[in-house]
Amino acid sequence: MPRDRRDGKQEVIATLLESQADELLEEARWFKPPRELQAAARDLEDLARRLTRAVPAAEALARSVESRLASSFVAPPEWICLVPTEDPSGIPELLDAPDTPNHTPFPGREPLSYQDHANVLREWHDRYGAEICYLESHAVLLSVEHPPSDPFETARVAIEHYAYCPDLDQAVGGLPEVASRQVPTGAWFFWWD
Fold first, then answer.
1. Cα–Cα distance measured from residue 120 to residue 18, given in angstroms and rounded to the nearest whole number
2. Residues 100 and 112 sit within 8 Å (Cβ to Cβ)
3. What is the pTM of this model?
4. Helix (H, G, I), strand (E, B), or coil: what is residue 145?
5. Considering only CA atoms, which of 143, 139, 142, 141 is closest in space to residue 192?
6. Which has the least CB within 10 A, 45, 101, 112, 188?
7. Are the C-beta atoms of residues 90 and 118 closer than 8 Å to each other?
């Protein structure tokens, strides 16, 4: 029986990783500094190990949520909506945002639903204290209370970020850049074109 990705927060992340595994494993071919074209990773654990080695041990450039928000948009938002809720991660379900029509990771080329977004955000809230501080039709900015600090966990979360939002390659960079510039910071930005 096929899994229903709407069953829960961990299920959505697992389904995203599973449905895009081939594309994610191919990313290992492009890690720098390659001496020659590398083979695709064998599995997601191998990808995380390779990513851990590809990311410099130097501390990532920490960027505040405010500086990430300011540098991500040409003009300030035209309106602001304050949403009183006991479940901030559920805001995508309340506001029908973000819309990700070009990211169709599920069988049948089905895009992420608003419930899928909420479940991913709930999982990251439970694990890292991530909360929505900005949401628009094609972008989400999270303030992260305690991002991962272990290099292997950081690599695994970078893979989750990339599975959730492959357009990060346009906004942040490839997996090594996501692992070094986004995951260890207190601001996680996602944008879909």
1. 15
2. yes
3. 0.81
4. coil
5. 139
6. 101
7. yes
By CB atoms closer than 10 A (0-12, 13-18, 19+), residue 16 is buried
The C-alpha atoms of residue 132 and residue 125 are separated, in whole angstroms, by 9
70/68 Cα distance (integer angstroms): 6
Would you call 92 exposed, middle or buried from its count of C-beta atoms within 10 A (0-12, 13-18, 19+)?
buried
Residue that is written with structure tokens 């410099």 in the block = 56
- The CB density around residue 108, as the number of other CB atoms within 10 Å, is 5
Place 116 in a pLDDT band, splitting at 50, 70 and 90.
Answer: very high
Judged on CB neighbours under 10 Å (0-12, 13-18, 19+), 165 is buried
DSSP H helices in 32-79:
44-54, 65-72
Tell me the C-alpha distance between 117 and 96, whole Å: 10
